[in-house]
Amino acid sequence: VMLDKYAYLDILDIKFDKYGLSGNKNWGFIWHNVSKSTTFENKVVFEIYCCQAALSSYSILHGAKRGFAFDSNKFLIKASKNLSKALRVSNIKFLLESDFKQLNQLIIKNNPNILFACSYRLDGVSIDDLMVLFKNVNEVFWDTNIQNINTDDLKKNGFKLIKYIFKTGSKRVLVYLSKN
Hints:
Oligomer: single chain
Strand order of the largest sheet: 6-5-4-7-8-10-9
Distance between the termini: 37 Å
């Protein structure tokens, strides 16, 4: 992880029982706000650049029927599998793919209801490429460094609700998008 500074920034600080993972993002605060924004019952979730796949794992623990966790880093896929195993979550499919362009095909094939795009590694992806991914799902959680998002583009892609949930850093925001 230390070889990729952006992957390092994505690591969540998670504490459970007597164990914990030290990281840069406050997991409890993130999950509290995400879980207040939607329901997961019988939904399929897809997590882009999953890091530890915590969003997928916790979604399943809160009623999602299936999860897909994508990352391009094989060490993070291994960490994701270990965390989901520790949480006793078995219905996540882990996808190791180095070509970002393949993501849209994976999303179309797996038809998720919720897309988690909560990675620093997405900062280098163009807005147009992200919109290609976003338009194929009903709900998106997006952690971005774009402070003034052009909501017209989002509305053109069918999103009726655009809600800034909270700032995730001095120059970042978590945004919830919904077509419902």
